[in-house]
Write a structure and sequence with these properties.
Blueprint (H helix, E strand, L loop, with lengths): L7 E7 L2 E7 L8 H16 L5 E6 L11 H4 L5 H20 L3 E6 L3 E2 L1 H8 L2 E5 L4 E2 L13 H18 L7 H6 L5 E3 L2 H16 L3 H11 L6 H15 L3 H12 L1
Parallel strand pairs: 2-3, 3-4, 4-6, 5-7, 6-8
Antiparallel strand pairs: 1-2
Amino acid sequence: MQEPQPGFVKSERHGSVLTIEFFHPSSNSLPSSMLHELATHFHGAGLDDEIRVVVLRSAGDRAFCAGASFAELSKINSSRDGEDFFTGFAHVINSMRKCNKFIVARIQGKCVGGGVGIAAAADYAIALAGSEIKLSELEIGIGPFVVGPAVERKIGLSAFSQLTIDAGSWRTAEWAKTRGLYSEVHANVQDLDESLQRLVNHLSHSSPQAMKEIKKMLWHDTAHWDQLLAERAKISGALVITPMAQKAIALSNKA
């Protein structure tokens, strides 16, 4: 039986705007239970005709998302368990892809690993200066296999390759904006939230039918991702139990 995890995922609707918020005390990292909840919230948003736009945010004023929970990764001892864990990220990304509402992400801090993937799966990301990004997976003996398609779709193969290979280096928010991961970067939280509110208000009064068709157009050629991300989760599941990965994860979990 899985131990209860600290943290939460919650949603709140005001008019036609649904805000999904998540929090975990370890820099907003994501254990499997929270991945499941996130996917469920996005799926539900797609089914609710009263919702026109979804805002994704994390709590706190530091990291947006530190990616996979190292505490949970450190307890994985079989490739099947590893595959199950990374399938959680696959479900989140696919639920965001399939949600027929625009998802606007509020990025108030750094994004690491799976957090970069979630930012990339949003349809529009508004970030705070200082919201650096890093795909750190290679440093712990795996790779950004599950989130890779979402990140590559947003920033292109060359930039994705740079992030993947130079896994120890941070890229600035401006770097991310230049390459299309972030749509906007703001100097302070007030400007960030004012821009977010402006866009969300505009979208909440836009045609839901038109937005649905635009989202389908923007996500063209991704229908195979259900199978693709499942295959990628299997690769990650096999790698996460290798001695090199287990040693690196144990060291990171103690840090």
